Fold RecBCD enzyme subunit RecD.
Amino acid sequence: MSQLTFGFDDLEPNEPMNKQPEQPEQPAQYAESDSVLPATELKTQPLLSYLLEAKRIRLVDVKLAELLTGTETLVENNEAAHSEVFYLILLLAAAQQSQHSCLELVNINWQNPFEIKRQSLADASIAAPDVLTPFATEFGLSDAVNKLMNAECVGDDKPLLLFANKLYFARLAEYETTLASRLHHLATKELTLDEAELTSLLEVYFPSSDHTTNLSDPIKTLNWQKVACAIAATKGFSVITGGPGTGKTTTVTKLLAILQSLYASAPLTIKLVTPTGKAAARLTESILGAKQKLNMIPDNIAPLIPDSAQTIHRLLGVIPHTNKFRHNKRNPLHLDVLIIDEASMVDLSLMAKLIEALPSHARLILLGDKDQLASVDTGSILSDLCQGLELGKMPDYSSERAAQLNRVCFNNQSEIPAASSHFVLNDCIAFLQQSYRFDGSSGIGQLAQAVNTNNSGLLGYVEQTINQGGFKDLKLNYSVISKPIEQFVQQAALQYHDYLQLIQQGASVASVHKAFAHYQLLAAVREGDYGVNSLNQRIEKALAQQGLISPYQRHYVGMPIMISQNDYQLKLFNGDIGILMHDEQGQLKAMFVDEQENIRAFSPARLPAHDKVYAMTIHKSQGSEFAYTAMILPPIKQANQGINRQLVYTGITRAKTTFELVADKNVLLMAMNKSVTRASGLYDRLKHEAS
Ligand SMILES: Nc1ncnc2c1ncn2[C@@H]1O[C@H](COP(=O)(O)OP(=O)(O)OP(=O)(O)O)[C@@H](O)[C@H]1O
């Protein structure tokens, strides 16, 4: 069962909010279920004061909740004046701070709704709360729903909204509603299509004779790429999801060739977008590579497949100093097909704005890995849409859909059985299950699968194979954590010699960037010995000792930086990587290479907020890949907060040819066992639309 948490499990962008406690003095009134607390020794304070002092809630949210419930009282002294709705709003605000779209009332523990952990009270530097819950003993879900339904601030055209036992701030509910209704419309609209022509084109791009289903694993090895093309060619909305190297880019390149052939009389305008510039550069490279490899694409069709991708922000046209875009409902985009890669990184608000800007005739195709970390901002759209998909399990297609897919892909043979239930969204989803980059001989693929499926048996097999000299692409370093970390830092610093030497030799900006991107050290946390900040300092020091850099100014030659704040004026975005080098005039500049391989130089003083990036957080690495990826996880004490399956899986799947894990094995096992989900009503809303 996955966990839903508030504030504790997402280290980024919210660092953990609970502080470490101190010596308590007076007893606290705890619920029966929490009587194991060292109550006799605790010094207490009112719950609300505690929540504020422990930074579990923000004063601004208290003020908002007071405003919405009409209780303008003194926070510290008059807690009794606050209603249940007031506390539900605080819980909603805390949920939103942790990027949940809503507050799921069914998941609230009414005895301890703020999930105050005993451990955080035991050695508290702040007085413990006198109670763990503001709700009466009998209070539960139906009481909460009743109270909310009768509250002035809840309802249509009100600041808060209740939908399917979920409480929303109206703006997020609106984004979800927009998204659900537009997706439903796209998923159900009639397309004019020559099915016989589609069948023959599918056979050209995926000849039946080229593919054999492996009978020991028939579901996983079915020709899912062919099915994905059939799905996306026959629906206005589709999702193609799959792990690393399962052929998402290859499939979409073939799909675009098929679509352009089907509509050859009036070629389609196709746009490829990604959430970050880095991902756009990567997609551009992959599409070009796929086009070159796929020699079955006719000469007249190849030029109709776009060669490059751009960011969503660039496509929509940012209006400086606002959160609005040039393209919107009133000024739609000029395109027929929109493909969004790395869709797991797109947050709810951006996706809603993007889908609103689509012209009514357009098709939308989402690509991505549903198991990766969700977006930095609110929402988890891809994993919401892909609910229920499991590796090795047949997805649920309706009987009409299964029949159609068997007809166009498998010469009417019953390769795909119909599911007993019917839901229009399921008919739009394709799940690529077989990795072509990481076959059975690749340790990276096996480790990624072991983590993603929480399979400790498979992990054991991976370890055993490494011990026997196999899986050369994988290094599992369980012991380094108990040794001085300095040894690992020295090894990591060695990996940065190449690009620094290239700078010293006066090599081109592009080749320096390429050499830098070969290796990347990822860390799960920011603070502590195993955090990004400390690792950056240590590596910098090691490189300085080796005479490769002179880090005695804020900015220096060879310093790699990552932008941490969007600057729409300069067109520098969160996640963009620059390297400081001298330009032709001998001026120190931060050099960036954009997705079209253009070089852009900025003087350091003009740069928006940025960080050193010898090491980066796993969150920031999403959408990028590196030939050699090393990932370091903190020791168990620090790892309790924020390390989970999605985080570790995302880190592993950044590696292309070599992956090195530096971690306590117990931390790895703990992460595998801990899957996190975000509260959202998107799936329910789509079901509601379909009913
Ligand atoms: N059906 C196939 N048969 C053989 N090789 C394939 C097939 N499909 C894809 N490949 C190869 O597998 C590799 C990965 O494919 P591709 O880049 O399309 O996957 P992806 O899912 O987009 O990867 P990423 O993890 O980078 O998102 C490429 O080298 C590609 O040529």
Notes: The CA atoms of residues 190 and 235 lie 8 Å apart.
